[in-house]
Amino acid sequence: MTRVSSSSINSERATVTIELVGMLRHHAGRGELLMAIPDRLDVISLLRELEEKHGILEGLLLGEDHESVRRNLLVLVNGREIGVLDGLATLLSDGDRLTLLPVSHGG
User: Fold this and answer.
1) Is 92 helix (H, G, I), strand (E, B) or coil?
2) Model-level pTM?
3) CA–CA separation, 9 vs 103, rounded Å?
4) Any idea of the CA torsion for 76, 81, 82, 85, to the nearest 10 degrees?
């Protein structure tokens, strides 16, 4: 397991486990990592942090506008899809598990 530390300072720290599934695991070279974040960070901010500041999975998580996730990515917090929570504004707290699951389908 790899630990990634957030660059934010002067705030209470929380640790979130990020689970990478499928091709994301392959591209990242690992299936899980721990990330120290400011307590109560939202999902979109964490995804931006992963892509922009740490270069993890760059281009695989966020849409071109960096305000949305790619259409083929399912995001879960503690096993619940963020669409049934507060979407990308879902706040993460210490001990949460964020699962990033690429979805592929065809006809």
Assistant:
1) strand
2) 0.84
3) 35
4) -130
CB 17 within 8 A of CB 34: yes
The pairing of beta strand 91-92 with beta strand 41-42: antiparallel
Backbone angles phi, psi at 52, to 5 degrees: -80, -45
The one-letter amino acid at 1: M
Q: Using alpha carbons only, give the angle 44, 63, 101 rounded to the nearest 5 degrees.
A: 70
Task: Answer for the pair 33, 6: CB distance below 8 angstroms, yes or no.
Answer: no
Inter-CA distances, 44 with 70, 87, 105, 106, Å: 12, 9, 24, 27
Residue 66's pLDDT is: 86
* C-alpha–C-alpha distance, residues 30 and 69, integer Å: 21
User: For residues 10 and 74, what is the distance between their CA atoms, to the nearest angstrom?
Assistant: 32
Going by pLDDT thresholds of 50, 70 and 90, the confidence category of residue 7 is very low
Tell me what pLDDT residue 6 has.
46
Q: Domains of the chain by range and CATH?
A: 2-102 (3.10.20.30)
